[in-house]
């Protein structure tokens, strides 16, 4: 796991991870307790989704779904943990 090298670091997971398989693999190597969901990442555009307008908080729900999927856990469990991470 990446956290063994960086014990005091958090990793952002934004909407860009939805289409980037390499970044998804990185997220899977991180302890879920060290993931911060991001909805606003205007500097990251998604080339595969050209019709998506500027970054919007509505995308954070999709980030929660992605984390649940990557860790193979229920959405509620992923959501509870991700909310705890930002407290």
- What would the principal axes of the Cα set say about the shape? globular
Helix share, percent? 25-40%
The proportion of strand residues reads 5-15%
Give the end-to-end Cα distance, rounded to a whole number of Å.
23 Å
**Weakly predicted, low-confidence segments:** none
Number of strands: 2
The chain-level structural class is: mainly alpha
pLDDT averaged over residues: 76
Number of helices: 3
Strand order of the largest sheet: 1-2
InterPro entries: Metal_Hydrolase
Summarize the structure.
Helices cover 36% and strands 7% of the residues. It is mainly α. It is globular, with a radius of gyration of 13 Å.
Which SSEs are present, and which pair or pack?
Layout: E1 11-13, H1 21-28, E2 35-37, H2 60-71, H3 75-85
Explained architecture:
InterPro entries: Metal_Hydrolase. With 87 residues, the protein is mainly α. The protein has one domain (8-85). It is 36% helix and 7% strand. The chain has a two-stranded parallel ribbon with strand order 1-2. The longest helix has 12 residues, at 60-71. 17% of the residues are buried.
């Amino acid at each position: 796991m990446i956290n063994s090298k960086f014990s005091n670091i958090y990793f952002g997971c934004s909407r860009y991870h939805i289409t980037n398989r390499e970044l998804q693999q990185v997220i899977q190597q991180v302890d879920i307790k060290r993931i911060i969901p991001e909805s606003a990442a205007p500097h990251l555009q998604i080339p595969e989704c050209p019709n998506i307008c500027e970054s919007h908080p509505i995308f954070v729900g999709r980030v929660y779904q992605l984390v649940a999927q990557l860790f193979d856990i229920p959405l509620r469990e992923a959501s509870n943990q991700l909310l705890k991470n930002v407290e």
